[in-house]
Each structure stands twice: as C-alpha cells, then as structure tokens.
Amino acid sequence: MVIWMVLGCSFSLVAQVEPEGSRGAYLEKWKDEAIYQMAIHGIPASITLAQGILESGDGKSSLASRSNNHFGIKCHGNWKGATVEHDDDRKDECFRAYDDAAQSFEDHSDFLKKPRYESLFDLDITNYKGWAKGLKKCGYATNPKYDRLLIELIERHDLAAYDEEGLKLISERDDFADNLADAADKGNRLNPKNPIVITGDRSMQLSENHIQFIIAGAGDRYDLLASELDMMPWQLYRYNEVKRDRRGEEYAPQVGEIIYLQPKRFRGSTLWFESQKDETLWAVSQRCGVKVSSLVRKNRLSPDSPLESGQKLSLQWRIAEDGKLPGFVRMWRVSSG
Predict the structure, then answer these.
(1) Three-state DSSP class for 45?
(2) What is the DSSP string of 166-192?
(3) In a domain, 136, yes or no
(4) Same domain, 284 and 328
(5) Over the chain (337 residues), what is each successive 10-residue block's mean pLDDT?
(6) pTM of the model
(7) Is-contact 268 289, C-beta < 8 A?
(8) What's the rounded Cα separation, in Å, for the pair 318 and 299?
(9) Which H helix or E strand runs over 196?
(10) Which DSSP helix (H) or strand (E) runs through 202?
(11) Is residue 300 within 8 Å of residue 290, measured between CB atoms?
(12) Is 183 among the domain residues?
C-alpha cells in the first residue's frame, strides 16, 4: 500500500542522534517538510533546506528565534500577517512572522510562485545549481555569492539526496491521484460520507480539505495503527497534534475519532466552521482538517480558549478585531459575486 504523504524512516539518511541546535539536527527536523513542499509545490527540497540553513543560521538566528521566519522573507505590500522589525540591509526592516516555523516553509513555497520567480519552474526539479543561480538572478538575496553559498551547502551535506526522496513522493502522489480519478469515474464521491477501501478492513477516506484519514475503531492505538499502515507512530502523533504520554503509554483514540494520515492544512476548504457543544479547539481542528495553531491565529484565540456551541471560526483569513473577515476579503467577495 502506498500512502503518498507518509513521511517516515525512508527519509532518514543518517541514523544517529544529533546535538540540539546543530546543522544535523536542523536537517533531521525539517527534511520531511522540505520533501513535502517539493511534492506539493515543485521546489527542490535541497534548495529549501539550503535556504533555510543559510537564512536562519540553522534555525538559531535572531530573526528565526523571534519570528519563526526561516527564509528571511520581508513583509512587502501584500502581507497581512504578523510582523517583526529586524536590521538587514537597512535598520528596522519589516519581516514576516509566523506562529510556527512550518508556516514559514509553506509561505516560502507560496512566495516563490510569484511571477518574479516563474522562470525557475521551467528548470528540472533536480537541477539545484540552476535553481540556486536563478534565485540569485531573480534577486532573492542581495549577497553576490548567494548562489555559490547554496550550492556549497547542498554539496557539502548531500542535500540532493532529499530531492530523490521528493521525486519518489511525487511519483507516489501521482499514483494516488490516478487511483482517486479511477474511483471518481466509478461514481464514488471522495468525502467523509463515502469511504474508499484501500486495503484489508480499513477504509481510507479523503476529507473535504483533501487529507487522507481513517476512523478509529475499538481497540485501536497509535502504535498498532502505525504498524498496520506501514507508518511511524510519530507521524500519527504529529499529523493529529496529539502529545505523547511521558509515561510511554500509547494514545488510544476514541471509537469514531478521525485519525489523519497526512498533515492537516493551514487553511480550510470553507470560510467558516461552526463548533459543537463542549467542543475543544483540537476537536474542531480534527473535524475541519486545519491545524490548531492556524485556528488560534486566524481567530485571535489562545490554544485553551473555551468555545461556545455554534461559534463560527474562520478557516481561511485572520479575522479583524470586530470578529469579521478583513475588509479586503469582504470587498472581494462582493465584487466576485
């Protein structure tokens, strides 16, 4: 069984524990995210990792520590999120800030999809030298040696090996998409109400937010499920934002609980989502497939904020202080009908 978003031990190139804060630890922590971004957005994982290392100082720079910004992306005129001031080419320049560093990886991919960088996507996805030179030519950074620095990092740490893992993931993703298309041709609607049986007794389903998941049954535990699905337990914990028990007891989901097999999104498929009675933010997150940190930020909440029954939560935009969508969103919705 191929689950195209399963990122596990197959991506581990070095089986050893690295000291916290080291370059090896940075790569170990963020390689899966870079491979994921490559599969989704077509940006070489080697380039993403090299830029992250260089721009964030292995995640230890002042900017990265203060704002989770691993790619030195400045605010620019269309940025509506949080900001932080940082000295760069000029004093107190405006940089983007994120609740979680993973958001900076996603934003980095979106940032490179601007027309300014369009020519990069004509290159072969494994041509890291072409991408490095293209980033310099397009003006990503002012350092005249930027391309050489990226190439040196990629070759010194064999980051191109992660591009090969990205190619495998892309292939698996394409195979998975073909399977979904075949199922659609047979009249199956791919949503939580109509599961698609992939293998054995498990029914794999695709949420409206396009995330693969299963429904927990009696006696399920994350360790047992991971073994059954050819995954690593940490993936289930991370994808479902469940903290591991310090005593070593494996998490046992309730019967009927959603268990995601892929990472949840930073945005939802709809503008709003209503909470149910006595529901927590985490429970809402599981139902709508949007990360808790994203719900917190978009709705100006804290992780432990109590929710009222029927409370409307924004899934796509950070609400204004009056609880409404930003003005430019409301204007766009009116103008677009």
Answers:
(1) helix
(2) HHHHHHHHHHHHHHHHHHHHTT---ST
(3) yes
(4) yes
(5) 35 39 88 86 94 94 92 83 81 88 91 87 90 94 93 96 85 51 40 44 80 91 90 89 85 92 86 90 93 88 87 86 69 47
(6) 0.51
(7) yes
(8) 6
(9) strand 196-199
(10) strand 202-206
(11) no
(12) no
